[in-house]
Amino acid sequence: MVRKRTRKSKKPRSTSSSATNAADDTQQEKIANSAMLQTTKRRYTLIGAFSIPVILLVAFVTTQMLSDTTLARPFPTLAFITPWNTDGLTLALEQAQHLDYVAPVWYEYSNTKLHGTDDAAAHAEWILQAKASGLGVVPRFLLNVNTISAAKDILSIHSINSIVREVSKYNFDGVVVETPVTGIPVLADQIKRFTEKLSHTLGPTRPVFLVVPGHVNLATVAPLTEVDYFVLSAYDFTTSGKAGPLTPFSWVQTMAEDWSREYPRRMIVGVPFYARCGAEVVNTKDLEVDPDEALVVDGEKVGDRGDGVACYFQDAETLCMRSCAFRRMGVGVSVWELGQGYGALVEALACDCDKL
């Protein structure tokens, strides 16, 4: 859904000495490289191809309507769809009235090459169906790097041109950008130039979303004035691979409030459609826990699946409460990821807050 941009006024940037200590730079780069090496690559292959039906015309007309309708919503809802949970493709079409944007995670830019173009081609018909149903299709482009020098190569006009070609080919409604270098000070200027060039090349009706990890310092993304929405990854309170809470609301609320004060109307906060049972990650749709038997602890459900292992998860009740709280803060909601959930969870994201 194509939202016309209304830029907020740019804040004056503070000045600082241009002199830089070489030893500090070297240490900063080592730390940054170490952090990026922890990033998990997401590779995948999808099979199959669709023909392009007559709904091309319907999708074209719908796209023209989107620029004046969906993006008028103050609290956008974004849902990621992964190839390893393809039920998300069907669920997106079934629940289109409760969503604003869908972000298929087909694309990855690594080793100076864009991967995933075949996956997009295989789903060309679905793209048209999604657009015709009123959804804005904003694919995620993962800029995957593990060194500072590689980051400088990828955050360049070459990757921008590759992204723009795909956007033009399928008439996408914008893009989601994710990279492990977001928030790393030594690359701040590089990321700023990249987002500015990408935004200007895509034009004013195609928003740019930037995924931001929860631990990133607010000040490091302040210069990114050309980013339309920051998508805050506000889940995995407990370190991956360990047992414990998934998304305590008090923790998420603190992050959302801090970010929304700094970036009003530009924040989208993530919620998980998966559960954590002990150290295991489980699709919520497959969870063998009765939500009515579970307790609500700090805004999330906690229940026993029958083997003595505590499962932390969201159900329609807690998601509705969380979504309403976000709306009152003036922020939107993103879902990771749609295929792990079911219809009632999606509907809860657009629930009637007056009935709570």
TrEMBL record:
Chain segments annotated as transmembrane: 44-66
Domain of life: Eukaryota
Family annotation (InterPro entries): Chitinase_insertion_sf, GH
Signal peptide positions (record): none
GO cellular component: endomembrane system
Low complexity bias (residue ranges): 14-25
Bias type Basic residues, positions: 1-13
Disordered: annotated segments: 1-27
GO MF annotations in UniProt: oligosaccharide binding
Record keywords, A-Z: Membrane, Transmembrane, Transmembrane helix
Family indicated by similarity: Belongs to the glycosyl hydrolase 18 family.
Protein name from the UniProt record: Chitinase domain-containing protein
Originating organism: Carpediemonas membranifera
Taxonomic lineage: Eukaryota, Metamonada, Carpediemonas-like organisms, Carpediemonas
